[in-house]
Amino acid sequence: MQYLVCPSSHVASLDSIASRLGDMDPAALVDVDAAGRLRISTQLTDAEVLRALHSAGLLVAPSDVERLASECCGGCGG
What we know:
There is one protein chain. The chain is an alpha+beta fold. 27% of the residues lie in helices and 21% in strands. It contains two helices and four strands. The chain has a four-stranded antiparallel beta sheet with strand order 2-3-1-4, with helices on one face. Helix 1 crosses helix 2. The longest helix has 11 residues. The radius of gyration is 12 Å and the shape is globular.
């Protein structure tokens, strides 16, 4: 699943967020787009993403986390 997170506060440590997400999903990817939003790709549920962000010190509300529509075409069989 892909998520777009619009934090109301500054993202202090992308490394900390990536580490927390990676603890729960070793294949998770996270980066920041030009608008300052977090982009997350993971197999975690909405609640697990929030838990990982909170444990990394980024306090976001559920309304700050948007699950994006899948872009998967199924072509790889995954």
